[in-house]
Amino acid sequence: MITLPTTPSFSLAGKRALVAGASSGIGLACAVALAEAGADVVLAARRKDKLTDAVDAIIARGWKASALQLDIADVQEVETSVAAQGPFDIMVNSAGLARHSPAVETKPEDFDEVMGINVRGAYFLAQAVAKGLIAAGKPGSLITISSQMAHVGGIDRAVYCASKFAVEGFTKAMALEFGPKKIRINTICPTFIRTPLTEQTFENPERVKWIEEKIKLGRTGVVEDIMGSVLYLASNASSLVTGTSLLVDGGWTAD
């Protein structure tokens, strides 16, 4: 009689998750996906009012959620809050910033602000969660929402691309260090996803034409396209996956 393999579980029952940038868009979608799978999710963001609404909606579904006002650009605040609230079995960082302009017009203050959140903030948030897991002797899964622009160039996006390429770099290095501790770290790299923060891009006909020509599947993304990816990386279904990026780009980077 043949012995069949067992499909790994996607259940997150009994897990605690921290989702940064969770008040709207991709971050909120990630929080919903984790909560629906059974995780106790802490939604973190700078805007407390929107967090409260999101948490109330998740709890109304019968899932577990709470709110944490947090600015990941403040490294000391991140370290203190994560140490007090953790350890977290799962981290998803969807907090990010874009300041698009031609490279010759980049202002130093815009460069610093983008790097402060997308690289510095992301780095030290991952560090803080990893510290908590290591101290507790627990395995975990750390996920940063990166971008397809971490793998290609983009018009008017030199600073944004630089920040996302940097995220891919520290993710690979951290994977080497955290692996022996059974802590996995990966990124999700979406194409253009329709959210309240990206609507300005979609109002530009030339940008929409460029986007639609690049996405081989013929459509832009919606937040639901990211939910399955984050559940996969957060769960035991991806137990041998670390130090890599999951491209959810409709084929943008295929050529």
Provide an overview of this structure.
It is a single chain. The chain is built from eight helices and seven strands. It is α/β, with parallel strands linked by helices and 255 residues long. Helix content is 44%, strand content 15%. Helix 1 (25-36) packs across helix 8 (224-234) and helix 4 (108-136) packs parallel to helix 5. The mean pLDDT is 95. The chain has helices spanning 25-36, 48-60, 75-85, 108-136, 158-178, 199-202, 205-214, 224-234, and strands spanning 16-20, 40-45, 64-69, 90-93, 140-145, 183-190, 245-248. The termini are far apart. 42% of the residues are buried. The chain has a single domain (16-192, 223-254), classed as Rossmann fold. A seven-stranded parallel β-sheet has the order 3-2-1-4-5-6-7, sandwiched between helices.
Per-chain topology:
Elements: E1 16-20, H1 25-36, E2 40-45, H2 48-60, E3 64-69, H3 75-85, E4 90-93, H4 108-136, E5 140-145, H5 158-178, E6 183-190, H6 199-202, H7 205-214, H8 224-234, E7 245-248
Parallel strand pairs: 1-2, 1-4, 2-3, 4-5, 5-6, 6-7
Helix pairs in contact: 1-8, 3-4, 4-5
Q: How is this structure best summarized?
A:
The chain is α/β, with parallel strands linked by helices and 255 residues long. It has helices at residues 25-36, 48-60, 75-85, 108-136, 158-178, 199-202, 205-214, 224-234, and strands spanning 16-20, 40-45, 64-69, 90-93, 140-145, 183-190, 245-248.
Which class do the helix and strand fractions yield? alpha/beta
Give helix and strand order, one letter per element, not per position: EHEHEHEHEHEHHHE
Radius of gyration: 18 Å
What is the end-to-end distance?
46 Å
Shape: globular
The total number of structural domains is 1
Helix content: 40-55%
Predict the CATH topology. Answer: Rossmann fold
| Count of helical stretches | 8
* Strand percentage: 15-25%
Enumerate the spans where pLDDT stays under 50 for 5 or more consecutive residues: none
The CATH class assignment is: Alpha Beta
Question: Care to count the β-strands?
Answer: 7
Specify the biggest β-sheet.
7 strands, parallel
Strand order of the largest sheet: 3-2-1-4-5-6-7
The CATH superfamily is identified as: NAD(P)-binding Rossmann-like Domain
CATH architecture assignment? 3-Layer(aba) Sandwich
* Nearest-integer average pLDDT: 95
